[in-house]
Amino acid sequence: PQRIFSGMQPTSDSLHLGNYLGALTQWVALQDGYDPIYCVVDLHALTVNPEPAVLRERTRRTAAQYLAAGVDPSRSLLFVQSHVPEHAQLTWILSCLTGYGEASRMTQFKDKSAKHGNEGTNVGLFTYPILMAADILLYDTALVPVGEDQRQHLELTRDLAQRLNARFGADTVVVPEPYIVKATAKIYDLQEPTAKMSKTASSPNGLVELLDDPKVVAKRIRSAVTDTEREIRFDTAAKPGVSNLLSIYSALSGRTITDLEGSYEGKGYGDLKKDLADVVVAFLEPFQARFHEFLDDPAQLDAVLADGAERAREIAAPVLARVYDRSGLLPAR
Ligand code: TYM
Questions:
Q1: How much is the average pLDDT of 165-175?
Q2: Which segment of 129-143, 190-204, 264-278 scores lowest on mean pLDDT?
Q3: Under a CB-based contact definition with an 8 Å cutoff, are residues 86 and 321 in contact?
Q4: Residue 77 gets which letter from DSSP?
Q5: CB neighbours of 95 closer than 8 A, spacing ≥ 6?
Q6: What distance in angstroms lies between residue 264's CA and the mean position of ligand 1's atoms?
Q7: What are phi and psi of 300, to 5 degrees?
Q8: Exposed, middle or buried: residue 258 (CB in 10 Å: 0-12, 13-18, 19+)?
Q9: What is the pLDDT of residue 200?
Q10: Which positions bind ATP (predicted)?
Q11: ipTM score here?
Q12: How many separate helices (H) and strands (E) can be counted in the chain?
């Protein structure tokens, strides 16, 4: 079976609906017929300089949300990035093969460094995509399920993989492919439906966090920005707000957009929002219950993560050894 690899940053107490629909639901679906590895990328989260106790807590909470969403440790390997030192080691090798200009062209880095200025931007933010490439290449990954915002990072990963293979031999690493499902690749902010939903949104009302109070979530959905027409129709250019609500509705209910458009013919935005609020709450309540079960048993959670780290190292160590050897580093005997 094909190897799947993906990860999320533990930079918030809760994942949001964009993380869930853009990535996590695909992770769960890809457990059938594939060989998946899912990682909590805590080293990436250090780029925002979190409080140590907060980072540790969020790492466990992120893992518990993977489990609550249906990531099943008997079918997926689940681990924490910092438990496998090979990630940092391969990052160095890849850093030496990445052009300064090439790294400077990453749009996420350009946005963040523009916002924080030169002095407020740490070097970790700059090399962040190289660490991400190391994550993926260490496991001979075929497919990487992510949202649209990670596409450029995956292109860099592919370029680096091809560069390694050109320099050191065609079979040095596997060149991965992005796995981006169009319908949910970009979930938008409820208040600003042309911007992606993100934990750093300008208003909290645009965000649906998976661990938010369901009453608050229902209210946010009922007050989502739409437009001044009346028609419920999927048209991302003319009706971004309504289209985003339809995308979320379709993904959570399994109903097609066409089916939804049909059943809301002649009805108003208020009806759509009220029903969608019910659909989201019906998903969130059992999700939150499962999350708390996993979080309230830290010994079991840590055991799952320890087992995952051990199995991950067994895969990553020989790949790193291969790259070290072919790079000309003297073997330590
Ligand atoms: P992160 O932690 O920002 O986001 C986790 C996943 O959620 C997706 N996503 C979205 N999808 C649809 N709509 C949205 N509004 C939305 N917001 C976020 C992201 O695309 C991502 O799939 N660099 C990565 C983490 C990472 C990684 C990796 C991913 C590190 N190493 C290796 C894959 C493979 C990131 O910051 O994701």
A1: 97
A2: 190-204
A3: no
A4: E
A5: 127, 130
A6: 32
A7: -70, -40
A8: exposed
A9: 86
A10: 9-11, 18-19, 147-149, 187
A11: 0.99
A12: 14, 5
Average pLDDT over all residues of the chain: 97
Q: Which residues contact 138 (CB under 8 A, 6 or more apart)?
A: 84, 86, 87, 90, 315, 316, 319, 320
Q: Which residues are catalytic?
A: 112, 196, 199
User: What does the pLDDT look like over 243-254, one tens digit per residue?
Assistant: 999 999 999 999
pLDDT at residue 332, rounded to an integer: 87
Collapsing DSSP to helix, strand or coil, 36 comes out as strand
The residue whose CA is least distant from atom 17 of ligand 1 is 18
Grouping H, G, I as helix, E, B as strand and the rest as coil, residue 39 is strand
Q: Do 78 and 71 contact (CB within 8 A), yes or no? A: yes
Q: How many angstroms is it from 19 CA to the middle of ligand 1?
A: 7
SS (H, E, C) 238-255: CEHHHHHHHHHHHHHHCC
Q: What is the pTM of this model?
A: 0.97
Task: Tell me which residue has its CA closest to atom 18 in ligand 1.
Answer: 19
Radius of gyration of the chain (CA): 21
- Measured over the CA atoms of residue 230, residue 232, residue 234 and residue 239, the dihedral's sign is positive
pLDDT digits (tens, 9 = 90+) for 36-81: 999 999 999 999 999 999 999 999 999 999 999 999 999 999 999 9
Is 10 labeled as ligand-binding?
Answer: yes
d(CA 36, CA 34): 6
